[in-house]
Design goal:
Largest sheet: 6 strands, antiparallel, barrel
Number of strands: 22
Oligomer: single chain
CATH superfamily of the largest domain: PDZ domain
Strand order of the largest sheet: 1-2-3-6-5-4
Amino acid sequence: MRNSILVLGLLSMGLVAGWCGRALTPALARPRAVEPRGPLPDWEQVPIRRFKEAAPSVVYITTTEERSRDFFGLDVVEVPAGSGTGFIWDTEGHVVTNFHVIQGAVRATITLADGSRHEASYVGGAPDKDLAVLQLARTPPHLRPIPLGTSADLQVGQTVLAIGNPFGLDQTLTTGVVSALGREIQSVTRRRIAGVIQTDAAINPGNSGGPLLDSAGRLIGVNTAIQSPSGASAGIGFAMPVDTVNRVVPQLIARGRLERPDLGFEPLEPRLVERAFGPQKGVMVGRVARGGAAARAGLQPVSVEGRRVSAGDLIQAVDGRAVQDWDSLLDAVEALPLGSSANLDIQREGRKLRVAIRLEPARD
């Protein structure tokens, strides 16, 4: 028995020694030859080209906010507030991002694709649309504005690319498709944003304000929000359509705010409409301002005589576009040029009428 154990031990030592000796043989330590792969197929080359073309237009935004060190707020310091993404809008140094990226910030720093850091000033914002414009304090040469596309002809299934800074990892590319169109999300003001693009391209915290591109490398949306129980990408992301962006941003650059029409009336709250007149589809005119657009158009408000309440005009469509509530009415009129007229389809005392109203800019 003892001799058998000794023999087995010697054999094991020999095997180990032989194995170790072969592993250390220089002739067998050479790397393997690389198998040639040939050129990349077109479907792989397209996102590579589009990223190289668009990446110089994408920026990394970091913000700071003021915090008090003591109860009385006499000792105020700046602390990091957050980060996000933006993109170069023009050669004058305007940068577009989400409003929620810079909301509450006292300072914003923009890092360009070349790694240079620049202080930025606030130009204007549209909280209802979750869009904002910043401007570089010093405009470097050779800024590359991002190419613009349109969101009017998008189709579900189109390839899309998102570039951003998720979790602070700058210049990150994700790809996917247009998952759905015409979605609705809520802005920071809790107003509904309609016509939003849904995509399965991975969008995470830090992607906000970054570009969503089509396969031609054109901007078709601004990545705005995600729907996820964990707060990380779950394959459901949302982007503001570029046609809205291209309408809002020039106004923010010119005036610092989104100029919208003043319709000259206040809507009756939906719960009051239902209580008094039952379920209704549309917007009921509650009170008409004297001398305003609604008064000149002849819109009739809700009236009360003793205990009798008469319904006001119920607006059901704007230029043929159906409206369900106040938000959808505002969306419809804000998409039209100021100074133009819109046709309102209304219901008045059981009759259907069409009334023209002039879209005048709201006064400050």
